[in-house]
Amino acid sequence: MAGGAAVAAAGLGAAVATTASAGETSASASSATPSASASSASSPSGEVCYRLTSETTEGPYYIDADKIRKDITEGKEGIPMTLRLKVIDSDRCEPVAKAAVDIWHCDALGLYSGYESSSSGGGGTPPTGTPPTDAPTGAPTGAPPGGGHQEPTDDKRYLRGTQLTDRHGFVEFTTVFPGWYRGRCVHIHTKVHTGGKLTDDGYEGGHTCHTGQLFFAEEAVLDSAKVAPYNTSTTERTTLDEDGIYPGNGAQGGLLKVKYRKGKIEKGVVGSLTLGVDPDATHDGTDL
């Protein structure tokens, strides 16, 4: 499934695949998992097992899972992106079906829906050459420190959405490649909920078993900065290595496997990752 999506995005010709994981292993060449963590191992049944994916802070801009949908773009400009995630029980080595997966991220110029007046963006001359060596300090403008939640300031909900995993543990979102804002590298927030159910108001009940962030290798970010509307940003950019939240442990820390056509990133990107979770644990990310 992941391979088919990658071919659709990359088309014919040379493709770029970016990831910083090392020592990646899989049970067999026919494994359907999109990306193994650096610490994966095979079970006797041949399924790939995954250690727990790193927990990170929820951040200030989370809004409860009330938009059950695959396409979260709402017409926002940016590089088309297909995000494919698989949720697996890291102890039992089995896919987690009917888990609710939330994702949310800023737009191409660093703005979060629901928080446009307190999140930060920029426009003007794009970054060029080598990434900055001095990381900007402090949180995004208007954001409380750490994982402190901030109440929404507007009713917009672009680039936010929730889906239930299928029986194989997969969800797939249609979105755009995120931009950046002061103090953080390019990232996507995610939560995994279990034990609840779908209602007319969204996903209700249960608990949050994983709160994390998904990251991008520098090559993909620099390629995105060459095309509109990313190339109008004047906001200082924090690199992956400079970021204070990325744990530096590759796929286990949330580093996506990203594929796109070389020199044609504007045509589309496919990002994939397997999230190893403990379905019975509670990690809401507000105490990190």
UniProtKB/TrEMBL annotation:
Region named Disordered: 23-47, 115-156
Name of the protein: Protocatechuate dioxygenase
Annotated InterPro entries: Intradiol_dOase_core
Keyword Oxidoreductase: yes
The species this protein was found in: Streptomyces rhizosphaericus
Residues spanning the signal sequence: 1-22
Matches recorded under SUPFAM superfamilies: Aromatic compound dioxygenase (SSF49482)
GO MF annotations in UniProt: dioxygenase activity
Organism placement in taxonomy: Bacteria, Bacillati, Actinomycetota, Actinomycetes, Kitasatosporales
Keywords, sorted A to Z: Dioxygenase, Oxidoreductase, Signal
